[in-house]
């Protein structure tokens, strides 16, 4: 792959980030489970894109800023060498680095499912059978969707007061059936992107400098956010987590634990600390309130390759060091390409010393190099507890310019999985906002 001067690429990438902001869901120039997110149009529909969005990621999303030359170190890999793809997956035998001994956290081979995917008998049966025909052993299921609706039989008084409960399934019945079939059940909670509470409870809403509610434009629509710095809003999210855990979910996965990444004119004047501080405060509060339960968080892929708060969203690797699992959204299509069109910055993305001009065409390299950088950062931290479990691209990014995208078929799925194993990790989840996985995409058991 063609290489350019790293410093020059870094400067161009950072200028691109400043000028273009972030993409759908606030994706800072790079990956984003949030980047593909889009609001739902009705209580029964969710538009999930990153492990947080809807059908396809926003075509206006940009990619993450390039890492500096010093961020290419890896204890196990030569950053300038071309990765070699092994013929068959050979799962890494342990979760190190990370402290998995304190809780029974299984090796996860997962897929995201919307609430509609499990709301009917026929659909649920289809996906349960899917686990019998493939290596999949885990479902990530919406319980609080991208609009802010609680889509299970919630009795949360705040949600009921503001009309945020629109049940699509009975949580206890669902988790019991999943467990009977040997399926690990993860509850996905979209935290602070919340149109229901933002509109219904304006005291919680994130404001613009003119005093009106901030609205983020996503896939042609718009959504309000609730303020992460508001402690009552944080307690509401944790109450939801407690309820679904008590109803049988094995793990809660927090998504959108951040401030908007592409928010202009947001009034941050009341914040007395950095945005990173407020994200950390919420994470530590949730950990303290839910001892003994397994908690995970979806993160922008940018934090794997940068040490600062890229995009000003409040996320860095250190913020999540005490949570049980982190799931950076490593979608090759969401990294900046060398075009001057959708997701393009005219240069490409520098990751672990390699310039990716057409990142969507190299799923193995992008995933591998991102995780190698993440692993190096984790191993240098003495107090990083979180286990790595990345979100991978389960969709075809046909919105990219011609020549910059390809169909993500079984080969592309398996290349990403192999990259996870080769980087030293053993767990993964695929994101497809409109779940359409087929059995040929995965190995059979």
- At the fourth level of CATH, the homologous superfamily is Aldolase class I
Structural class: alpha/beta
**Helical percentage:** 10-25%
| Overall pLDDT | 82
- How are the strands of the biggest sheet laid out side by side? 1-2-5-8-9-10-14-15
Rounded Rg = 20 Å
The largest β sheet comes out as: 8 strands, parallel, barrel
Number of helices: 9
Tell me what you see in this structure:
The chain has one domain: Aldolase class I (TIM Barrel, Alpha-Beta Barrel). Helices cover 25% and strands 15% of the residues. The protein has helices at 6-20, 121-133, 157-161, 171-180, 195-200, 231-246, 275-289, 363-379, 410-422; strands at 109-113, 138-144, 150-152, 165-169, 184-190, 215-218, 221-224, 251-255, 294-300, 325-330, 349-351, 354-356, 387-388, 391-393, 428-431. By secondary structure, the protein is of the alpha/beta class.
């Amino acid at each position: 792959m063609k290489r350019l001067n790293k410093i020059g690429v870094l400067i161009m990438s950072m200028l691109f980030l400043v000028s273009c902001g972030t993409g759908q869901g606030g994706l800072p120039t790079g990956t984003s489970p949030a980047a593909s997110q889009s609001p739902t149009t009705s209580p029964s529909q969710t538009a999930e894109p990153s492990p947080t969005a809807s059908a396809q990621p926003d075509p206006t999303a940009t990619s993450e800023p390039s890492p500096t030359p010093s961020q290419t170190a890896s204890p196990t890999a030569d950053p300038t060498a071309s990765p070699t793809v092994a013929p068959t997956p050979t799962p890494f035998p342990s979760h190190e680095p990370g402290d998995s001994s304190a809780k029974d956290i299984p090796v996860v081979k997962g897929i995201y499912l919307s609430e509609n995917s499990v709301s009917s008998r026929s659909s649920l049966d289809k996906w349960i059978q899917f686990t019998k025909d493939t290596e999949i052993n885990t479902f990530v299921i919406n319980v609080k969707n991208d609009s802010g609706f609680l889509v299970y039989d919630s009795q949360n008084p705040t949600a009921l007061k503001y009309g945020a409960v629109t049940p699509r399934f009975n949580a206890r019945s669902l988790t019991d059936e999943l467990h009977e079939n040997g399926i690990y059940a993860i509850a996905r909670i979209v935290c602070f992107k919340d149109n229901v509470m933002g509109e219904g409870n304006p005291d919680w809403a994130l404001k613009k400098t003119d005093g009106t509610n901030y609205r983020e434009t996503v896939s042609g629509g718009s959504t309000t956010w609730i303020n992460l710095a508001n402690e009552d809003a944080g307690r509401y999210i944790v109450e939801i987590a407690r309820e679904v855990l008590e109803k049988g979910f094995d793990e809660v996965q927090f998504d959108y634990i951040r401030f908007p990444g592409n928010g202009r004119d947001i009034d941050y004047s009341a914040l007395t600390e950095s945005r990173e501080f407020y994200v950390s405060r919420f994470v530590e509060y949730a950990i303290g309130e839910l001892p003994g339960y397994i908690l995970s968080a979806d993160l922008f892929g940018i934090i794997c390759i940068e040490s600062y708060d890229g995009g000003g969203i409040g996320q860095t690797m250190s913020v999540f060091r005490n949570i049980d699992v982190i799931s950076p959204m490593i979608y090759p299509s969401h990294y900046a390409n060398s075009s001057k069109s959708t997701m393009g910055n005219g240069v490409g993305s520098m990751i672990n010393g390699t310039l990716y001009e057409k990142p969507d065409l190299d799923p193995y390299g992008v995933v591998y190099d991102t995780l190698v950088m993440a692993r190096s950062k984790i191993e240098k931290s003495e107090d990083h507890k979180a286990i790595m479990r990345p979100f991978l691209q389960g969709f075809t990014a046909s919105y990219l310019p011609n020549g910059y995208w390809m169909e993500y078929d079984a080969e592309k799925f398996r290349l990403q999985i192999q990259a996870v194993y080769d980087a030293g990790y053993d767990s993964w989840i695929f994101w497809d906002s409109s779940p359409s996985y087929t059995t040929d995409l995965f190995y059979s058991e």
